[in-house]
Amino acid sequence: MMRPWILPMLLVLCGSAVAAVLFFEGSPGPAAALLPAFLALAGVNSPLIFPRSIGALDAQRRGVLDGRPVVFWRPGCKYCVRLRIRLGRNARQLHWVNIWRDPAGAAAVRAANFGNETVPTVVVAGRPHTNPDPEWVRGQLSPST
């Protein structure tokens, strides 16, 4: 359970340490600028911005039942973050699978991407799409969801 928080916590600790050193060396301006930058990076890489991940098999089953896309992602992926942010509130309508926490999800991504774990991989109606445009993904959501 703690593994997803390792990178964000390291970013917070490193940012705090760098800001403290700069502050005590007499550079409060750069310290004040660096700390929020590190905190923003920690927030973007934290599990907080992504909807709760489910297992790949469950996501695929749900996707077939309700017609919603399945998004395979991993923490720290800037393209996954871009997709999540650009989808905004609509992101909660998709089924999210963290491939670092689900071996079946990682296997599904490798099968769709010639052995590579390239994310985000979005599966719509059984067809995988690697790093699709967020607007296209939004268009795949039915108006009723």
Automatic annotation (TrEMBL):
InterPro entries: Glutaredoxin, Thioredoxin-like_sf
Keywords, sorted A to Z: Signal
Domain annotation Glutaredoxin: ranges: 70-127
Disordered, as annotated region: 126-145
First and last residue of the signal peptide: 1-19
Protein name: Glutaredoxin domain-containing protein
Species the sequence originates in: Streptomyces alfalfae
